[in-house]
Specification:
Structural class: alpha/beta
Largest sheet: 4 strands, parallel
Strand order of the largest sheet: 6-5-8-9
Distance between the termini: 44 Å
Strand content: 5-15%
Radius of gyration: 25 Å
Shape: globular
Helix content: 25-40%
Length: about 450
Amino acid sequence: MSGKYFHHALKFRKDVCIGCSHCMNVCPTQAIRIHGGKAELTDNRCVDCGKCYLVCPVGAIIVEQDDFSRIFEYEHRVALIPSILPGQFPESVSIRQICSVLLEMGFTDIFEVEHGTRILKDAMIKYMDERKDTRPLISTFCPAIVRLIQVKFPNYTGNLIHLKASLDIAAQYYQKKLLDQGVDPEQIGIFYITPCAAKIAAIKSPVGDEHSAITGVINMDFIFNKVYTSVKQGFSGKKTCTIPRMQHLQPEEILWTLTDGEASLMPGRALAIDEITNVIEFMEKIENEEISDIDFLELRACDQSCAGGILTSGNRFFAVERLRNNARMVKDQEKIRVTRESKESIDDYAEELGKDLAVNKILPRSMDKLDEDMTRAMQKMQKVQEIMKTLPYVDCGLCGSPTCNALAEDIAQGEAVVDQCIFVQKKYEQSGKLTPKESMEKMQKIWGHEKFEDSTN
């Protein structure tokens, strides 16, 4: 298929890649191939889940981010922080300390993303009530899951809840708030501190929306290192620090980014499933009608949801524990929380923001579609079936494709040839269709000449 579907935050550095194929073997959508000894991304299959990033042994896969210096292009520099950020730090480091360092780094305003959930939750419940004939309805919280549904389960794009995520609501709120204060819109820079690559991709290339109100993205591991270093050094040796005015999150808002954060608040039979391979397995059962009578699905690509994001620095289980402790503490200290609350609140904009929650139709973009033309697609599917009869079904990956079926599809698309398969090569050698030298040349073309050099010379 031609045409670029998505912006991708994951970038492959061919100058560093050693062609180990670890990334190809873990990719849940079979979006990676090996050519010339280097990993290559199949754009229309990748959902930016980041599993490849986690297994690369040489750091050949990186996650893009905006240069931090970009924040200084704006007079008003807003840091949108997810509730998972304080969970990365030891218990001794408070959210106020973290935000003080962020202000010291150059931000002028700080706002926690999950404040947007107090508007979104009610809208989701209303959405579910209005669409009782569509089940299960699927949360759009996780951008990797939205793209997964588009490419792997395209028949379920209509089940996605077509409402903006809390991140977008928070950005719109803060933008409106500053505009109402008379701030020049050209001087507003809103930057999200992200725990994952998928949210970067969603901001750069929104699904169901024309553009994002967010100016740029900064990776959480970068911020963590800067903040924790400053905290340990006592705020760079300063005797005083800026104490930010905070709108405190409510317990359910603190827990929203964790597994069961949404499902626990939704009516009917609501399930929460995390880690993308678990999600795929579950959705396949839904697709095959092995599972039914579910009203709401909270699906997250990472283990422990955002606590397990690929750009987080802390242990995901400790992060979950800290956030749950924070939620309990806030609930127990309700009176103290209210007296310290900033007078400004997102609730003041609830009605205005509520009118702009809907997103456009989310289109299916099936990765299994072999051609836009139905006739040619059927011809290619028949060719795939014929090719599969010649392949060994061992899914060894030595052909540079992750599975035999993936190789067959690549061949049908004109992107590979059948004798890339090592088993086919040996058959061809025995029948005289291929010489050992020609077989070696084919393997070198896939895996690179370096892997076949004699290291003893």
